[in-house]
Amino acid sequence: MTRVTQRPSSGEDSPAGGSRASDRVRHRTVQAGGLEVPILEAGSGPLVVFLHGFPDHAASWAGILDRVAREGYWAVAPAQRGYWPGGAAPDGSYRIASTGQDVLALIEALGRERADLVGHDFGAAAAYAAASLDPRRVRKLVTIAAPHGRQLMNAWVTDGDQQRRSWYMFFFQSALAEAAVERDDFAFVDRLWREWSPGYEQPDAERAALKETLGAPGVLTEILGYYRQLFTPPADEATRALEARAFGAITVPSLYLHGADDNCFSVKVSDGMDDLFTNGFERVVIPGAGHFPHLEQPQTVADHIVGFLNS
Q: How much is the pTM?
């Protein structure tokens, strides 16, 4: 089922949680998966884990964390492996299955048996993997701006439009990538945000905080590993078997959100993904939003998340 939402009547979307949201969001580290993982958290109650993508970081969830916490949940946003100094993958892996295992390890480290998952971009991939690897640990799944299923790989091979949109992935395979991304205070990253979310201007303070994350010692090379391992087949049988499970069917109730103006992944790439969801699936297309709808229209996205979790 696909639904197109209406744009906010005012033409704007106010920040989820308001200006005091950051005051209610706590910071700490949790030992999980062999790493001391920095997390943001708010509230108490049933656990909801929020997973960020690229080029982004956990802080982008702050307003929505606060909103979800005020609805009676414990909202937690971890840094993904590689996104902080000392956070390099212990096993060197930035494969999707590994990030899914990180999610499951975090749920256990937080003392819970189950959690709801909300993931954007590579965070969505991690959420799909976690739900596929161990659906007993996932109650509900919300993913944003990154489809699940073979149609995405097919688009990279056969769809010239998606190949154009994904040019950066192919460029990241080269040795030039680090120097190009860092040049002129991460102007490369500014360009991606402009292209992917036309009409959205990231606030200066948030842009500076993101660049501080990306510019920390050793971080950029580690997170480029997500892309450099994306198109490389697993080297051993055990990893191949794990990856096959991680890309499998989703057996938990699921909601998928995609911005109509997303210039990173075309909306049409998510056509047909409901075939892989066996326990309820809804796709919502958000008009006027690009690749970062949780920042472009945070109230709308928070409403969808809370409504789905409460349903």
A: 0.93
